[in-house]
Amino acid sequence: MPEGHTIHRAARDHRKLFLGQKIAVSSPQGRFNDGAKLISSQKCLSIEAYGKHLLYEFQNNQVLHIHLGLFGRIRRRKLPVEDARGAVRVRLVGNTHFIDINGPTICEIMGEEAKSKLIRRIGPDLLRKDADPNKFFDRVKSSKAKIGTLLMDQSVLAGIGNIYRTELLWRQSIHPNTLGKEIKKSQLESLWIDARALLKVGVKQNKIITNLNKTGNAKKGSLNIYKKKRCPKCRGAISKIEISGRTAFFCQY
DNA sequence: TTGATTGTTACCGG
DNA sequence: TCCGGTAACAATCA
What's the CA gap between A185 and A36, in Å, rounded? Predict the structure, then answer.
C-alpha cells in the first residue's frame, strides 16, 4: 500500500483529527509488538512523517512509531468504535474519530533517543521542507550501485517506492541499471524536482498519478509504464527486470 | 492453495 | 566498506 505520499497524507489527516487531544492507544487483539509499554491515554503533541515512518509523540515523551511495510493499512472511522476488521495491531481513539492500523512491520513505543537515531538514518525526505537535495546528489554521485537500487534506498532518498521508481526513471529517460556515479548532476536535479512534484500530487489525490498533462491533470489512466505492455511515447515494448528484489519496468527506445 | 504485492532488515560472499 | 543476493516478516486478495 504505502509509498511516501500515503504516510504524509496520513500524518496531515491525523494532525487535524488528534493534535492536542488525549488519545487512547490500544491493541484490541493483543497483537502490538511491544505490549508491555502501551500508552494508555496521553495528550498527543505532534504527528510527523519521515519518509515512510509515522511518529506520534505524546506528552509523557513516548513516541508511537509505525511503519506500514508492504501490506500495512490505516483505516479511519467516525466514533463510536466498531469491531476490528482483520488483524488490527494498534487502535487510536480520539474525540471524534478512531483509526485502526493493520499489518505494519513496525509498531512500537520508543523514547526520544531512538526517535532521533531513526530520523538521522533516514535520507532527505522529498515531502519535507527541511530536505537537503545535496545529500541525495552526493550519495548518488559517489555510488557504484544502480540508480534503480539507490532510489529505493531510504537512507539515500526517503519516500520513493517501487511504482514511483519505475515511473520517475521513465519520465527522466534514465535506465534503472545506470550506475549512480554515471548520472549527470543536472539529471539528478531534474529527477528531484519531478519526484517532489509527483509525490505532492500523490498526497493531494491520495493516489499515485504520474501521467499528467500540461495543466497538471491526470490523463486517462494514472501510470505510464508500470505493469504496462507498451510505452506511451514510442509504442515500443516495455521490459521487466528485477532490481533490489522488486520488479522494475523500463522502455529501451 | 498459490502467487503476487505501493517495504525493510539481517546476514553472507565477493 | 560497498554492493548484490537471499531469506524472513507482515496481511490480503484473486
Answer: 49
Phi, psi of A199 (to 5 degrees): -65, -35
Going residue by residue through chain A, which has 253 residues, state the pLDDT in tens, using 9 for 90 and above: 899 999 999 999 999 999 999 999 988 776 665 544 567 789 999 999 999 999 999 998 999 999 999 999 999 999 999 988 888 999 999 999 999 999 999 999 999 999 999 999 999 999 999 999 999 999 999 999 999 999 999 999 999 999 999 999 999 999 999 999 999 999 999 999 999 999 999 999 999 999 976 555 555 579 999 999 999 999 999 999 999 999 999 997 6
Nucleotides of B under 7 A from a protein CB: 5-9
Question: Could you give the CA distance from residue A245 to residue A243 in angstroms, rounded to a whole number?
Answer: 5
Cβ-contact A8, A198 below 8 angstroms: no
Q: Which residue is nearest to nucleotide C6 (CA to C1')?
A: A245
Catalytic residue set of A = 2-3, 52, 246
Backbone φ and ψ of A7, nearest 5°: -70, -40
